[in-house]
């Protein structure tokens, strides 16, 4: 029996010793990497050649775990990691090197996966990352295709969170929308102005909706009471818009959700929402943008005015409540043109019906797609 106990004890000691050796090896490897990063930092400071910059990028942490071990702060020990005090300078140099060597931008996105915002290093990194994305939207669109949906969610979650969650949609997201709609849809859900609960709910309280919209920096710009589904109960159509002072330097913005609230008869509503139809801002045009929502029986039409060169383009997007299917579908889309230089000039209207497009539910209709329709 004693022999077995001694053997077990020796085995335990051996395993423990092996584990300690591995930890020492990991610590030694981390120290070597940090020492190499320090050397590369000095080299780039003295001479920012492409070769030196690439070495610095290569030795910079590969993921968020390594990033924290290099630049983070240990709350339990009450002290910073090896490069905590110099984190700002090292992070700034990393992004400067990426600016000069954009094909390595993916490394910044890799670090953002499973990243958690914190003050100091994590905050510096987040700010530099967002600046990089805003200046390289096309390249970011391309790089995001290398990541799964879950990884993209993680990246955008890190960007969207901070000491105060962002309350406006960054303008660069609309550029990403143009080149990678899927990445845009994943990103948009992570920003606080989009963190509105699921408005396709069956039992929505109107007061709660209005409060949450206000809390997320939206204002009510249109309200229409009607009986859209013909059940004798008063339904409501709402249009809201983000609170923002736009300038001519801003880009075309779609952030004016329209809600159709179908009355359940118990002071709650079934709510349907679309945020890709109504323009909030269009630069460099005197066009009015959103004008009205006209309701007739179980149809409603969104009226807007856009601009293209010298043309005013009045658009009419008509939806129908299908009583049989109990859903709202696109019925008709039309465009009417006016030449500002010659208002009396005759320009043929364009009208598209369900024969020209597949079945499109209200929630999925998109102004960009509708513009592409042609006979």
Automatic annotation (TrEMBL):
Source organism, top-level taxon: Bacteria
Protein name: Lipoprotein
Protein's organism: Epilithonimonas ginsengisoli
